[in-house]
Amino acid sequence: MRTFAFLLLLLTSCIYALYRGGGPERWVASIIIGMGALDPLVHIVTPLEYATVDPGHLFIDLAAWLCLLAVALRANRFWPLCIVSLQTIAIAAHTARLLDVTIHPKAYMIMQIASSYPLLIVLMVGTFYHQKRLKSIGTDRSWRNS
Known about the structure:
By secondary structure, the protein is mainly alpha-helical. The chain has six helices and no strands. α1 (2-20) runs parallel beside α6, α4 runs antiparallel to α5 and α4 packs antiparallel against α6 (116-137). The termini are far apart.
C-alpha cells in the first residue's frame, strides 16, 4: 500500500508539473522521473538491502542532487532550493552509512527514502504557485538572467 501511495504521489506531482509548470518545474519533474526510471535498473544489478552502502542509489542520488542544484541556482524561484535540501538528506544517508558501518539498516533506509515524499509535495506546491502567478500577473519568468 505504501508503494502504491508513493507511486500515485510521484505520478500526480510529476504530471502536474510537466503540464502546468514552467521551466524549473518541468526540469525537476524530469529529474525525478529519471530517478524513478533508474531505480529498477539498480535493483537488477544490486539487491535491495540496507546493510551496506548502496552504490547504485548513491550514484542516482548524487547525480540527481547535482542536476537539482543546477536548476536551483538558475531558477527564478525559491522552492528548488528546498528540493535540493531534501535531496541532501538522501546524500547524508549514504555518507552516514559510509562513515559509520554500525548504523542500523532501518535508519539508513528511512534517511534514504523519507525525504522523497516532501520533495514531491514541494514540487506540487511550486507548480501551484507558478500557476497562481500566471493568473494574477500574466507572466512568470522561469530563469534568472545572471
